[in-house]
């Protein structure tokens, strides 16, 4: 039941964002001159298209950073697990040695 509710909420959010972006596109259709650093001449595009390009570029950069952080944390987790195994083996050796010395 929980998965169906999550899927429904995801579809609802996607539809809501689509409606808002559609209304933004309709309201801001006038053209502006955009002077980008990489091009010699200004480019003419609508305000909505210019805004949405930067919005989606930000979304992609954010997702990329999240994926990168997850990869780094996974590497650190594996290193910590190896260290914990090594320390666990060392602890068991010390316990065995302590038991042998006491007898």
UniProtKB/TrEMBL annotation:
Residues 27-91 form the Lipopolysaccharide assembly protein A domain. The keyword Repressor does not apply. One of its GO terms (cellular component) is plasma membrane. The keyword Transmembrane applies. Keywords: Cell membrane, Membrane, Transmembrane, Transmembrane helix. The chain crosses the membrane at residues 7-27, 47-75. Pfam families: LapA_dom. This is Lipopolysaccharide assembly protein A domain-containing protein. InterPro entries: LapA_dom (IPR010445).
């Amino acid at each position: 039941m929980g998965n169906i509710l999550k899927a429904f909420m995801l579809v609802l959010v996607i539809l809501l964002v689509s409606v808002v972006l559609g209304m933004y596109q309709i309201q801001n259709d006038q053209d502006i001159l955009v002077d980008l650093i990489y091009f010699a001449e200004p480019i003419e595009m609508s305000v909505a298209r210019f805004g949405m390009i930067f919005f989606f570029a930000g979304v992609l950069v954010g997702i990329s950073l999240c994926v990168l952080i997850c990869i780094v944390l996974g590497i650190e987790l594996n290193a910590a697990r190896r260290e914990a195994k090594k320390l666990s083996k060392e602890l068991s050796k010390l316990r065995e040695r302590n038991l042998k010395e006491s007898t």
